[in-house]
Amino acid sequence: QVQLVESGGGLVQAGGSLRLSCAASGRAFDMYAMAWFRQAPGKEREFVATITRRGDLTDYADSVKGRFAISRDNAKGTMTLQMNSLEPEDTAVYFCAAARTALIGTYYTAPGAFGDWGQGTQVAVSS
């Protein structure tokens, strides 16, 4: 099991940028595929971005492709989400998630694949 803590959320104007961070405690961070999800009020949690254990493969929701970038630093036990060109539709609580896997080159996009979640960080984008 790994404990996850998100940070970096806040209020930003449309067109602005934010950088979210996810810090993992415990060992073997590099045994986990990681991802970001978000949940807006009244909506279901949705996939945003995912990354393999070594950080060499990534995938994104269509709505954020070209604007968001996911990365990780296994030595530091951290994952980040760089969010550019933010839109009001990006307003949500953002969660980081970890999926322990023996597969180095695999990432996951379904919430059910992830066993560990952070508490979330709020992102609000004003128009």
Q: What's the layout of helices and strands?
A:
Elements: E1 3-7, E2 10-13, E3 18-25, E4 32-39, E5 46-51, E6 58-60, E7 68-73, E8 78-83, E9 92-100, E10 116-117, E11 121-126
Parallel strand pairs: 2-11
Antiparallel strand pairs: 1-3, 3-8, 4-5, 4-9, 5-6, 7-8, 9-10, 9-11
Order of helices and strands: EEEEEEEEEEE
Report the span from N to C terminus. Answer: 39 Å
Major β-sheet profile = 7 strands, mixed
Count all strands and give the number.
11
Question: Can you give the helix content as a percent range?
Answer: under 10%
Q: What is the beta-strand fraction?
A: over 45%
Please mark out the parts with pLDDT under 50 across 5 or more consecutive residues, or reply none: none
Counting helices, strands and paired strands, the structural category is mainly beta
Radius of gyration: 14 Å
Mean pLDDT: 97
Q: What characteristic shape results from the CA principal axes?
A: globular
Number of alpha- plus pi-helical segments: 0
Characterization of this structure:
- This protein is an all-beta fold.
- The chain is built from no helices and eleven strands.
- The protein has strands spanning 3-7, 10-13, 18-25, 32-39, 46-51, 58-60, 68-73, 78-83, 92-100, 116-117, 121-126.
- Strands 2, 4, 5, 6, 9, 10 and 11 form a seven-stranded mixed sheet that branches.
- A hairpin with a 6-residue loop joins strand 4 (32-39) and strand 5 (46-51).
- The N and C termini lie far apart (39 Å).
- The model has no long low-confidence stretch (mean pLDDT 97).
